[in-house]
Amino acid sequence: EGDTEAVELLLAAGASVTAADKQDWTPLRLAAALGKTAAVEALLAAGACQESVTAAHAHGHTLLHEAAAGGEAAAVEALLAAGASVAATDTAGRTPLHAWPTTAPYGAVA
User: CA–CA separation, 26 vs 33, rounded Å?
Assistant: First the structure.
């Protein structure tokens, strides 16, 4: 994936895995929300910290909420392996499973 190559080039050049913009979007959060599994894995391997995996952002959403909303099972699995909680709830009491799109392929969530 071109995205992963760009991530790896930026990391090699010293880019921070914890940098965030004004809306609190980190590289890991963006990769998770876009379902870019290889980028999620590269950022986790480069030291994206446990706090960023479990931290709540706007409306109480965690990275797992973001990845689940994108419907990309492999990105969800990578975050789960890094310690994300399936029981995390947002401010409305919804878990990441509630964020999974109803149009996801049958059997995508096991």
Answer: 11
Name the CA radius of gyration of the chain, rounded. Answer: 13
Structure tokens at 87: 């029981």
User: Residue 63: how many CA atoms within 13 Å on its side-chain side?
Assistant: 34
> Residue 102 is encoded by which pair of tokens?
């109803």
- The pLDDT tens digits for 47-94 are 776 667 777 877 888 889 988 988 888 989 999 998 899 999 989 999
Cα–chain-centroid distance for residue 29? 5
Contact 72, 100 (CB under 8 A): no
